[in-house]
């Protein structure tokens, strides 16, 4: 078992991302958020964008799961081999890439992408962001080291549930042997604990920890609806 994967077993991973046009879209800000998450107990940080990744790398010692987002539709999470290489060059232990069976913008299959990437970066792990059980099985066969439920509800294969899509999580956990990171719409500690009980290796939480505008909206709506 790879040491980094072992290190993440039963631990919380925090995703620190701000989006185009947002006030927190700033590498130094994201590095501060990441360091705060590590102080709170995050065993690893997931982050996007080369500048954010470089800034976070200088600030925290825990493993980094790096990605880039190219657009926000179709295959947009670290979509090409070139993107994989650029992310790995920032010093991440793990790269997160689109792990669906959809056509990739550079024409490579997922298996080709992983094989060519690993030829250059044998030490760097690949997390496949999947949207369904079928994706997860294919991604494992394609050589992914870690399976993420990241794209469940976003790739068109599964409906987007309000919280975690437990049916998809159960199917994926049962179908693959690789560690499954439950990621996407984990909004409370109780839900994170349930993910572990259902067989997750680790849980990745983004919005509910690191996206104040969304969290504020939850509270604002609750107050408004109760008033
Ligand atoms: C679908 C997609 O593009 N997900 C992205 C992947 O990196 C992020 O925008 C999410 O914040 C992340 O997956 C964590 O999920 P949540 O923020 O729901 O805890």
TrEMBL record:
Statement: the UniProt record of this protein carries the keyword Lipid biosynthesis: no
Pathway: Amino-sugar metabolism; N-acetylneuraminate degradation; D-fructose 6-phosphate from N-acetylneuraminate: step 3/5
Catalytic activity: an N-acyl-D-glucosamine 6-phosphate = an N-acyl-D-mannosamine 6-phosphate
Gene3D superfamilies: Aldolase class I (3.20.20.70)
Keyword Isomerase: yes
InterPro entries (UniProt xref): Aldolase_TIM, NanE, RibuloseP-bd_barrel
Keywords: Carbohydrate metabolism, Isomerase
Signal peptide: none
Entry-linked SUPFAM superfamilies: Ribulose-phoshate binding barrel (SSF51366)
UniProt-listed Enzyme Commission number(s): 5.1.3.9
PANTHER family per UniProt: N-ACETYLMANNOSAMINE-6-PHOSPHATE 2-EPIMERASE-RELATED (PTHR36204:SF1)
Family designation: Belongs to the NanE family.
HAMAP family: ManNAc6P_epimer
Function: Converts N-acetylmannosamine-6-phosphate (ManNAc-6-P) to N-acetylglucosamine-6-phosphate (GlcNAc-6-P).
Protein name: Putative N-acetylmannosamine-6-phosphate 2-epimerase
Organism: Tessaracoccus lubricantis
Species classification: Bacteria, Bacillati, Actinomycetota, Actinomycetes, Propionibacteriales
